Amino acid sequence: MKNEAEVIHHADGRAESGEAAADLLGRSPLDNEALAPAARRDWLEDFKSQCERNLARGVEERMRYGFCYVYKPVLDDADWRSFASTSEYRRWCRDNLPVYLGYGAPDQLQARILDEGQ
Amino acid sequence: MARPISFKREFLMRGSSFHPTQAQELAAAFAARRVDYMFIGKSGAILLGYPSTTQDVDVYPRKDEENGRRIVAALKDLGFTVDAQLAQEIIRGKDFVQIKSGPFDIDLVFAPDGIESYDAAKSRMDTTTGFPVLNIRDIIASKRAARRAKDAVELPLLEAFREVYEKRRS
């Protein structure tokens, strides 16, 4: 799928569209099947560099940047809950949480990603 | 239908008492009570150096009653409200216990997806950070087995992190 509808207008009059715009919008290229393999590799290399930088940090610093609270509707609205099995918990998440939180079943593309490397 | 967000819950309890050294506090309290456990999930990966964020601490404790009693004591030490029913659920070792009644959120996952046994996982445990953390390969296997939509976004990144992490350690 081309991202032709996405156009980024710069202050100097330049405009970016397609993959460049998608990148600028912060969209993960891993989500974009049409992304050229070379761009995908570049993006992964950037992420690996980020991993290197984070590994150079101490554990306390990793915690400082890595733990932050964001309210999640429904999920955060009880003091506690327990489940007899992990699959029961997954089912509860699928049935009760808003889809956008991502606790639901994967779609076709997501399932393929989950199956990769098995 | 989702319940409305209470002012107390979102702003008072979370906003004022949350701070980022929660894993450190938990580790200290669990060590003091001799809880047998490992960090698991994204919080475990973050301790290892995975550059991402999460809001809760996921813990994989050994499933036995004595360990359950130790967890209850440690959670109370940390300031969690643990009523009699919750204590029973932890001691009985319900497979998944999610607790949001304390200074931070914690998931006790007694039976994580994709992990065959506690002892086998513990034999591969990563202690390089000073914390007991599930091996990065087991964290990935567990996320893959959970088969949630959000894990499809996370997995390629976790695999990339694993490559860097293992290369750095070899």
Please report the distance between the alpha carbons of the first and last residues of chain B.
Answer: 51 Å
Helical coverage of chain A, percent range = 40-55%
Derived structural class of chain B: alpha+beta
- Radius of gyration of chain B, Cα only, in angstroms? 16 Å
Biggest sheet overview of chain B: 4 strands, mixed
Question: Which series of helices and strands of chain B comes N to C?
Answer: HHEHEHHEEHHH
Q: What is the count of DSSP helices of chain A, taking H or I runs of 4+ residues? A: 5
Quickly describe the structure.
The complex is a heterodimer of chains A (118) and B (170). Chain A has 118 residues and is mainly alpha-helical.
Summarize the structure in words.
With 118 residues, chain A is mainly α. In chain A, 45% of the residues lie in helices and 8% in strands. Chain A has 5 helices and 3 strands, in the order E-E-H-H-H-E-H-H. Chain A has helices spanning 18-24, 37-55, 59-66, 86-96, 108-115, and strands at residues 7-9, 15-17, 80-83. A two-stranded antiparallel ribbon of chain A has the order 1-2. In chain A, strand 1 (7-9) and strand 2 form a beta hairpin. With 170 residues, chain B is an alpha+beta fold. Helices cover 54% and strands 11% of the residues of chain B. A 4-stranded mixed beta sheet of chain B has the order 1-2-4-3. Classes of the chains: A mainly alpha (118), B alpha+beta (170). At the A-B interface, helix 2, helix 3, strand 3, helix 4 and helix 5 of A face helix 1, helix 2, helix 3, strand 3 and helix 8 of B.
